[in-house]
Amino acid sequence: MAETKQRRALITGISGQDGYYLTRFLLERNYEIHGIVSCRAPGIGEAGERLYYADLSDGSNLGQILDKANPDEVYNLAAQSHVRLSFDLPQYTANVTGIGVLRMLDAIREYQQRAGKQVRFYQASSSEMFGKVVESPQTESTPFYPRSPYACAKVYGYWQTINYRESYDMFAVNGILFNHESPKRGEAFVTRKISKAVARIKLGLQDKLSLGNIDAQRDWGFAGDFVEAMWLMLQRDVPEDYVVATGQVHSVRDFLDASFGHVGLDWADLVETDQNMFRPAEVDILCGDASKAREKLNWQPKVSFEELARMMVDHDLELARQEAGQ
Ligand code: NAP
Ligand code: G4F
Please, are residues 247 and 136 in contact by the beta-carbon 8 Å criterion? Predict the structure, then answer.
């Protein structure tokens, strides 16, 4: 029987939430994983054999990394991904989250010529691009109305991905992913901020939780489900862009209900408002229509909103117990 060649994936942003789940997903499929970590990662100069230091604000070593990794698939997950922070760091966010995509695409275009092979490229595009939504639910053909420097940068990356696909016949796709969360979610994002606070309040390690706009509504899914869709997009014969979403909308208040309720607490007296958490321009509501992903990729989410909240709180309870020495 002919042996199938082991495929190689290069993941930027491998240390982030999605990098964690995608790495595990691809390892289960026998991929050889190579990852790019930023200069903020610990152990500078001591990265393992398949980890490379690079910064998407500086394209100088991306070509060398591609030569070493020799990937069949590249997943571009690296970004300054915090929307609120992007208002404080708009130029940095444009450079990394926007022009960083161009740097990756260009490095891959040149690498393909050197190596004489085609690479499949996934760009982590975002539902934030729909911003002040012009229709609901949002599909692949809904016009964008970005409401933050982050969203503007993502729109730039989205169009460069299409531009390189059409100009240079590259297999480059955008996954337009709606919010997805997990126990690996960064602690500055609202769901994780809540689940961590629930656990610490329950164990007496914290008194209050400060939040911004709790009326905001999102289409929240589980990151472990969403990384499968990234991979499926790269397995198609034709490169196309896909919305990935659950189609279910919940408010931050709903997440408070589900997570505090899971440990038998009422959040009404425990949550206070912090004006610093409000954004100069807010995205009030997002709701995705993932019909195309369902039909063409045979993809669907498995974890419900309530299960997600419970999973995150249970994980943070374990961390809080360790913190409390229990
Ligand atoms: P995340 O946890 O914030 O991870 C971002 C990753 O990017 C981290 O590994 C980070 O490494 C790296 N990074 C940041 N700045 C960098 C730079 N200048 N050069 C190189 N690497 C850099 O994000 P995530 O939730 O996994 O999301 C993955 C991608 O999907 C991001 O592009 C995000 O914008 C996009 N997205 C996310 C969602 C969502 O709901 N999670 C939805 C739609 C799109 P360091 O920590 O070392 O800086
Ligand atoms: O958790 P968030 O910070 O996520 P946001 O802004 O929706 O962005 C996330 O999802 C995008 C996909 O649509 C990604 F592209 C992006 O990279 C990121 O992963 O905030 C969610 C909502 C917002 O409306 C925010 O105003 O929660 C509201 N919120 C209320 N209080 C808060 C807080 N958000 C944060 N981060 N912290 C608060 O204290």
Answer: no
Three-state DSSP state, 323: helix
Distance CA 140, CA 145 (A): 14
Give the DSSP letter of residue 3: P
Amino acid 1: pLDDT: 53
Torsion of CA 36, 38, 43, 47, to 10 degrees: 10
Whether 126 is in the pocket of ligand 1, judged by its Cβ within 6 Å, is yes
Write the pLDDT tens digit of every residue in 163-220.
999 999 999 999 999 999 999 999 999 999 999 999 999 999 999 999 999 999 999 9
pTM over 0.85: yes
- The answer to whether the beta carbons of residues 229 and 261 sit under 8 Å apart is no
Give me ligand 1 centre to Cα 78, in Å.
Answer: 4
Cα dihedral 68, 74, 80, 82 sign: negative
DSSP summary character for residue 12? E
**Annotated catalytic, 28?**
no
Active site residue 21: no
What does each C-alpha distance from 94 to 121, 147, 149, 236, 294 come to in angstroms?
20, 14, 7, 30, 32
**Atom 7, ligand 1: residue with shortest CA distance:** 78
Is the shortest distance between the CB of 243 and ligand 1 below 6 Å?
A: no
Q: Which amino acid is at 81?
A: S
Q: Is 128 labeled as catalytic in the residue annotation? A: yes
Cα 121 to Cα 125: distance, rounded to the nearest angstrom: 12
Å from CA of 84 to ligand 2 middle: 8
**Amino acid identity, position 241:** D
